[in-house]
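Form P-L/3: holo structure prediction, ligand adenosine-5'-diphosphate.
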Amino acid sequence: MEFDFKSVAAGFVLDGEFVSAVRFGTGHINDTFKMATTAQTYILQRINTSIFKAPELLMDNFVRVSSHIEKKIAIEKERNPQCRRRFLQVIRSRSGEPFYRDENNNFWRCYIYVDGARTYDVLETPAQAFAAAAAFGSFQLDLADMPGRLNETIADFHHTPKRLAALEAALAADVKNRAAEVGPELEYIFKNREEYSLLIDGMNNGELFERTTHNDTKLNNVLIDDVSGEGICVIDLDTVMPGLPHYDFGDMVRTGTSPAAEDELDLSKVGMRFEMFEALLRGFLSSAGKFLNPREKELLPFSGKLITLEIGIRFLTDYLAGDVYFKIHREKHNLDRCRTQIKLAQSIESQLPAMQKLLSEIK
Ligand code: ADP
Ligand code: GN1
Ligand code: MG
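OUTPUT (holo model):
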């Protein structure tokens, strides 16, 4: 399924004439393209509206967040003119909206491509982990004083008990007769069920506080500067909404500590590298440490295990439901992804005492 990019491009106020658009990135939800005109490079995205059911509200969040960050960067540049931080500069449609809807009801957005930086699907060094985590922590810090509450683009996105309930429903329905092959995965997921409400309970009993969080802090959602190695721009803002800092830190541990890909078949390669966890923790606390309370800090190591298992639950749910949510590129892709998450969660679990000890030394 390709698109008439020239006419999509004509929907936006762009510099120069349309030249090309090519598929870009490895995301599971939206369709992302790198688009060139004779004057500028852009990112063009078709929003997956079967998942994001209110794309106008989503883009309202997007603009509020990116313009708030723009102001923060402007202040920082006054103090430090060398600052290389960037924000997602949204391009308006010809009718002045921050999106363009084509005649087939495809919902498009466009922003300036940030040059001189790139993303990593698998982090290579602790320095990159520190940089990425510091950038996500700064993102939360920057948004702490943003006026108003953002729209919830997907309700209960990180409500782990509800994610478990969805898995149980998919298991009961078993529409593809796949339940029989996932016994060991289910066993581990169910064994841990007592832990799934810990963060939600903490919020309900007043120990943890709702903040504005990113909620999809895959490490390939931050642009790392080619020269300085700093995390200069947080991207993929679809799920920025009210949440807990742990959702973001946990997903960083999930995506930043294993040397293997999310869909690695050789599970012996999957596991948490402690030095990467340490770099993530130090990086995150270097910025988010300014507002986190002691109980919030204490739960950071646990959040790595929780969010890893939560995404594992989601991959397994989608496998049982017939692969209707995440894009797949081969048979059993979602099951393979689930298995890496479980292996990683087990590795995190076995290192939790050491993670907690490290935290107490840093605090
Ligand atoms: P998704 O993960 O939903 O496909 P992203 O917004 O994360 O969408 O974009 C996919 C990839 O495109 C990113 O991992 C990154 O490599 C690249 N990318 C996205 N936005 C920019 C940008 N403004 N400048 C440079 N590269 C970008
Ligand atoms: C999806 O779009 P992408 O690939 O950055 C998903 C995340 C999952 C991730 C797993 C909106 O993120 O929640 O953690 O896949 N995004 C949505 O790789 O569901
Ligand atoms: Mg992404």
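COMMENT: The chain has a mean pLDDT of 97.
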